[in-house]
Amino acid sequence: MMAELNERSQKILEAIVKDYIASAEPVGSRAISRRHHFNLSPASVRNVMADLEEMGLLCSPHTSAGRIPTEKGFQYYIDSLLQIRDLSDKEKKQLRSSYRFSGMKMEDIMQEVGRILSGLSKYAGLVMVPKFATTVFRQIEFVRLSHGRLLVIYVSETGLVQNKVISATADIDQRELEKISNYLNRELNGLTINQVREKLKKEMQDEMTLYDQLRKRALSLSFAALQDEIEDQLYVTGTSLMLEQPEFSSPDQMRRLIQTFESKKILIDLLDRSQSAQGVQIFIGSEVDLKGCSLISANFSNRKGAIGALGVVGPMRMDYSQVVPIVDFTAQLVSRVLDREAE
Question: What is this structure's pTM?
């Protein structure tokens, strides 16, 4: 465990982090002495910087006399020095006016939230809704499209909607489909999709099912509707903005960043952690497989529980004091919208 820094060391580390966030360039002792009113000579600042480097909080990227924060330095800054500013009333009003989702489908809402987060932060915006299999069943409806083709509409307890077209072995009229829907809604309400699948498997093997045509058809259709696994849906917007950052100018850095966004697994795992946590979460650096990057995230919910998570991925030197309140307020706004949708 690292020893606590004295006030002078904290102030100089904070100044270096802030200057590096603003410039993306190594910060020298002379610049710190000139820009910040510490009443310290460049030599005194240089001595403190040497101590911070010895503690692993700063490093020298090349022959430059300047220093940049390490992952450890950023982590200390976030844990001990970061001051989150409050959004002004004007900024809150602008955010509220950006998030107008009336009449939009859930998928469109999620994509729009990611786009707005990216536009406000100038980094990549992320929005994730959870695995279909973990959601709690509320309602299923079958709609006849044509001979042997049905549209299945599944609604979760938190209001998420999934649509799927399936084939039926025999043509079924809409009246019969309504009976099937009513039967399933009575039998399956309150179960997760994984539990529903297990129940369907058992009941399809039940001898009584062979003699009850409604039950047989209902189980067969619902099994077809729910058998495919649907993974977490992750919407990513603004990856090109990340490639404009100086940290990702080399081919190797660029390739690593693109692989992170394309595989999605790392981002989904971190957003999964955010979904079960309270408040804003900050993940930084290689300890969470985000070398050179940070993720600021928060969950969103309605009155029935957490629905998903959203966030911003940026370089490790992103302006946390600016991005954290944007992510936090956006999660609150999206939660309010979804709360109204669930009524």
Answer: 0.78
